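ok trying again, last paste got cut off:
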Amino acid sequence: MLGRLNGWQRLWIIASAAWIGAVGYIEWDQFPTRDRLLWPAQSAQLKLTEKTLDEASEILDKCARANGGRCPQEQMGPYTQTVAEGRRLGDEIVSDAMKRIDGSLVETQIRAGFVVVAEALLPAVGLYVAGLLAAWVRRGFRSQATS
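nice, full thing came through this time. structure:
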């Protein structure tokens, strides 16, 4: 079969293989996995934790300034409350994201697979069809010129 292909068809096969390989490589790197989909929630949790610790640190500093450099144990309630609330909210963000991701991961991956197939094959097939049409039009003009 390959022996009967003309030069343009062979060039199309090489270009299509390179295109499909490039699309496959790029899309494999971006394919939706649980960890990749969970990363935004984990990032939000980290930012919330940093903000909460900053707020708690301010509370602790205020307490320490008011008590001569050291915050007594009995006055640390607002500090521990702030830290606990921040931790609870951060865990809630990640937990909600995990539930959402676990419920739709397979569907998201299937959709991504269809997109990869479309991105890889449609341009290759379109290029081949465009070449066939160009050859068909060229043959039409050539047969009129010889008549």
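cool. The chain has one domain: 8-22+33-146. The chain has three helices and no strands.
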